[in-house]
């Protein structure tokens, strides 16, 4: 009979094996169909895990690892899953050979420490513009979109701009090749009134979260409990208050007014008559970006707007994209929008995930300038160096299990290119090479297949910690 531990490992491996074919530039996509029939097509490890129904509690632990990787490094989510699976497979063999799980977890912890030390010592610590471009391109390779074009789109977006100050707007239609970066904030709204202008330059901007209408919830809670006769008095008061706020906006000198909430019809009329361009129901995220782009401050009290609340839009322009009208606002603040186009919702969403991986790469490289070879070479190098150890007996076997697991990641990449691991692995190992998309040996550094140190470091750390956690569980109990 199998032990609980062996069953747990089996459950984890079922999930990780499923993801193995999605690793690398020739990775296959998964199609996920949810309860309501929505379809997602992706080869992003995190997304597959995130959208998949996972029942087994151990598989859920593995899924968490992909989430951590996504949060901490942005890229490398498939790698972390594959490595977790390989570490567990090695452990299973060792357990079957009579080695106690405690010895394995201790050896894995030790090997992790050594692996990180080797990893850090191998990293290249200066990052040029060309290196950054290569890292973006490596993160984008193998997705069903043009790597070259999207690399340029991402480069344009991050130029002079923090990765947190980049907005993504998705519009179906055209092809991914039509995706582009635009300076400023592209808002998926058009001016609320047909008589409002569709273009402005050097205009003062007012941005607020305060509504310029009677909010429905307010009416119902305030009025329901009161005498119906008071309703009209209440409404008049409210309407007067809105009028006051509207006048105050008109007098503030603002030529553009952006609302997170609604604007009453009357107020829309008044604003249009006063020559103000107003947008309503703008997403919170867009509001935040607009504040930065136009260097504005939120104007919360519309009856006393201070001149320093107002920012400046160098340009406002209503743009037609497909059949829809969107409003572009540019200011002196460094904010950019990546507009993603694509034939179907699935294509657009996969492009968005890929772009987010690339933005994650830029974010972490700006935090720590260090990179490593990709294409499976880093895993191979660490695996090789770990074999030079002075350990003995069972501990040595377990430690080498860790080394084997790393090599299996490279082997998975090789297999996914269509090449035969049995032929190619010895060649890569002896020549210190990685594997190209075509399944031939390459020097990843000179070919520009490079990845941030942090992506690899996080992946190896999380995978090992997860494997150790699973190896320590000898019982699953039902909690109350
Ligand atoms: P992850 O979700 O782990 O990032 P990917 O499917 O993006 O998984 O694959 C990442 C792996 O593919 C890395 O090992 C990376 O070095 C490798 N890779 C990316 N581009 C290339 C390339 N052009 N040639 C060879 N390997 C590549
Ligand atoms: Mg990737």
Describe the protein's architecture and organization:
The protein is of the alpha+beta class. The protein is built from 17 helices and 15 strands. It has helices at 4-20, 45-51, 57-72, 77-96, 101-122, 129-140, 147-158, 216-224, 230-252, 265-273, 284-294, 345-367, 377-386, 393-417, 421-431, 444-447, 453-471, and strands spanning 30-33, 39-42, 166-172, 180-183, 185-187, 199-208, 256-259, 277-279, 311-321, 324-330, 336-342, 371-373, 434-435, 441-442, 450-452. Adenosine-5'-diphosphate binds at residues 23-25, 27, 43, 45, 75-79, 138, 141-142, 374-376, 413, 435-437, 449, 451.
What does this entry show, briefly?
52% of the residues lie in helices and 15% in strands. By secondary structure, the chain is of the alpha+beta class. The chain is elongated.
Q: What is the makeup of the main sheet?
A: 6 strands, mixed
Distance between the termini: 28 Å
Bound molecule types: adenosine-5'-diphosphate, magnesium ion
| Overall number of strands | 15
Shape estimate:
elongated
Radius of gyration: 28 Å
Strand portion? 15-25%
The number of helical runs is 17
Structural class: alpha+beta
Oligomer: single chain
Instruction: State the helical fraction.
Output: 40-55%
Mean pLDDT: 93
Uncertain stretches of 5 or more adjacent residues: none
The strand line-up of the biggest sheet is: 5-10-9-6-7-8
């Amino acid at each position: 009979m199998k032990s609980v531990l062996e069953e747990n490992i089996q459950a984890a491996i079922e999930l990780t094996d499923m993801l193995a074919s999605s690793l690398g530039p020739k990775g296959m996509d998964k199609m996920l169909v949810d309860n309501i029939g929505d379809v997602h097509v992706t080869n992003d490890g995190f997304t597959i895990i995130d959208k998949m129904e996972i029942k087994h509690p151990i598989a859920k632990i593995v899924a968490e690892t992909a989430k951590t990787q996504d949060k901490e490094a942005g890229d490398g989510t498939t790698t972390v899953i594959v490595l977790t699976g390989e570490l567990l497979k090695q452990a299973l063999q060792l357990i079957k050979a009579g080695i106690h799980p405690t010895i394995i977890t201790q050896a894995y912890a030790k090997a992790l420490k050594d692996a990180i030390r080797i990893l850090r010592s191998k990293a290249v610590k200066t990052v040029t513009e060309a290196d950054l471009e290569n890292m973006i391109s490596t993160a984008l390779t193998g997705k069903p979109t043009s790597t070259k074009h999207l690399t340029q789109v991402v480069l344009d977006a991050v130029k002079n701009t923090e990765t947190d100050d980049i907005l993504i707007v998705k519009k179906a239609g055209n092809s991914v090749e039509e995706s582009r970066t635009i300076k400023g904030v592209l808002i998926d709204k058009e001016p609320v009134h047909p008589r409002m202008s569709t273009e402005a330059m050097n205009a003062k901007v007012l941005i607020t979260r305060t509504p310029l209408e009677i909010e429905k919830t307010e009416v119902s809670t305030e009025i329901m409990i009161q005498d119906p006769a008071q309703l009209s008095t209440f409404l008049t008061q409210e309407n007067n208050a809105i009028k006051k706020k509207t006048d105050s906006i008109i007098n503030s000198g603002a030529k553009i007014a952006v609302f997170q909430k609604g604007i009453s019809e009357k107020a829309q009329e008044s604003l249009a008559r006063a020559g103000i361009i107003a947008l309503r129901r703008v997403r919170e995220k867009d509001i935040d970006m607009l504040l930065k782009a136009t260097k504005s401050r939120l104007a919360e009290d519309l009856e006393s707007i201070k001149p320093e609340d107002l920012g400046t839009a160098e340009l406002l322009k209503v743009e037609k994209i497909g059949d829809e009208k969107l409003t572009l606002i540019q200011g002196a603040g460094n904010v950019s929008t990546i507009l993603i186009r694509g034939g179907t919702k699935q294509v657009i969403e996969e492009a968005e995930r890929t772009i987010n991986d690339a933005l994650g790469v830029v974010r972490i490289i700006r935090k720590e300038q260090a990179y490593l070879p990709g294409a499976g070479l880093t895993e191979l190098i660490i695996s090789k160096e770990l074999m030079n150890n002075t350990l003995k007996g069972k501990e040595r076997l377990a430690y080498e299990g860790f080394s084997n697991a790393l090599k299996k990641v490279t082997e998975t990449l090789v297999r996914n290119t269509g090449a035969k691991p049995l032929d190619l692995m010895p060649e890569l190992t002896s020549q210190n090479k990685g594997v190209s998309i075509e399944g031939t040996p390459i020097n990843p550094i000179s070919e520009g297949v490079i990845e941030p140190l942090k992506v690899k470091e996080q992946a190896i750390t999380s995978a090992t910690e997860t494997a150790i956690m699973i190896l320590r569980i000898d019982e699953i109990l039902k909690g109350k």
